[in-house]
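Supplementary Note 3. Input sequence used for the single-chain structure prediction.
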Amino acid sequence: MPLTDTAIRNTKPTDKPYKMQDEKGMYLLVTPSGSKYFRYNYRFNGKRKTLALGTYPVTTLKEARDKRDTAKRQIEGGIDPNENKKAIKQSRAENAANSFEVIAREWYERNMTDKSEDHKKRAMGLFNRDIFPYIGSKPIVDIKPIELLNVRPIEKRAVETAHRALQICGQVFRYAVATGRVDRDITPDLRGSLKQAKAGVFAAITDPKQVGELLRSIDSYTGSFVVKSALQLAPLIFVRPGELRQAEWEHIDLDAKEWRYLVTKTNTQHIVPLSKQAIEILTQIKPLTGNGRFVFPSARTPNGSRAMSDVALLAAMRRMGITKEEMTVHGFRAMARTILDEVLGFRPDFIEHQLAHTVKDPNGRSYNRTAHLSERHKMMQHWSDYLDSLKNGAQVIPFTKAV
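The predicted structure, written as discrete structure tokens, is reproduced below.
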């Protein structure tokens, strides 16, 4: 009699394995441990063979019979079901070894070792969040240009991120070309398919009245003291966000009122004069973080061995109700550049030096890091005093620049 689900379900194990016949060569093997295996006996080229069809109840009776019928058709077509099964398994293993995710992780290990922890974290986050879920399991040789556009939903979140995703996919494809896994990089085929990003534009508050409101919001922040201190210092020194987060105590001289460090973006030394307000913030936080490496350590490493996360300051601003369309952490630089020039009337070359931008003299030579240092000390103190006046609600009087 053919097997039924009820009969299989009620079957009990014995001291020895035994078979329950179904039909057309299929049977159920019941082991002393209680496991139940579907099997199919067949003959191929005169030899008796057995094909495993699955384990009950993961494989149902109907599914086992369907597999048996498929095997019978293969035999009739001159194909050995067992050999076919092995070939499929091997093919899957080969495809997995050459999947986009496997190759991408290999590229990551070979090419990201000398990058900063933040850079590596952003790259892997982009892979895990926006790329691997769409094309990670697919053999890289089978990926078509149109399939890469599956990452296009990123555009709705951030156009710049979508472009970075396509760029990093191109790096993986070029690595696959170099290692013989694929013939060419297909990402150039998608040139122009993504919306154009607005290069170099960061939201910034530059209206003095709104600046005062922003500073008061920062002072009222009730979150982490380390995060609050970083936010209070950011407008006073207007360095790049990554430089602020990774500030190290050994580079800060409170007596000389200076912070000296290497600007990694331009590989140049930079000096940030520290106003008395900046010194006060650093003095207050030093008992908490001064025994570690970083001024603003990660909340997960209180010993100061890791810098604050790249999203900590931005997240704090969002919790204060400041949207990304209003202000970014990078926006403190635009705030300072605009107001120092248009309102306070400082020389543009002083401002550009303090922003660590490349500044040329009339002969085409770049000024060194100590250029106009005394004047920049005065400018930074004036800037901090001015921000205090805005925060305290002083009347804003525009400065008329001398021609």
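The chain is about 45% helix and 10% strand. Confidence is low (pLDDT under 50) at residues 396-403.
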